[in-house]
Amino acid sequence: MTGHLGQIVGYVRVSTTDQNPARQLEAIGTVDRLFAEKISARNTDRPQLQAMLAYVRSGDLVRVKSPDRLARSTTDLLTLVNHLKDKDVQIQFIDQPALNTDSPQGEFMLTILGAVAQLERATIKERQAEGIALAKARGVYDRTPKLSADQIEQARRHIADGVPKAKIARDLNVSRQTLYTALAGQGRYRPSSD
Length: 194
Prior knowledge:
Elements: E1 8-14, H1 22-28, E2 33-38, H2 47-55, E3 61-64, H3 67-70, H4 74-86, E4 90-93, H5 104-138, H6 149-160, H7 165-172, H8 176-184
Parallel strand pairs: 1-2, 1-3, 3-4
Helix pairs in contact: 6-7, 7-8
């Protein structure tokens, strides 16, 4: 491990409140500042992770037991690693030192992970496009609109009466986006040209 100039910052996460973070705390050892949370959520929905990202400064070292405690997917992990690298903050994974960002081997492994994640995204997009094309060919993709012309007209009257669009969407059992699309006459709500 190369030297670092700043603080050692620990991050631990358990998925639910009944899990105990003791093993993670023991693994990361003594730290200058600890961020711990009991939540299973996307990176942007984890307050302690966001607080840690805001707290760390150039020269700091973030110590985590394993990559899956820091991120829930390879893509999220790479985004976090790049964010920390941009701040000149190193990451140390106790269980997988081959991914530590302070060594050429760690940089190499993260580059490989990035390439794999990019390939995975491209493959998923390709499969989705193929699936949509097949569904269209079978005539099953072109779903009928969720709102009828009468419902759209009723929604327009309610809006004119000052009823919030969010309430109208709830009452019609559709998302606000579906309501906006229908009101704008876009997508499957576009008037047919026959």
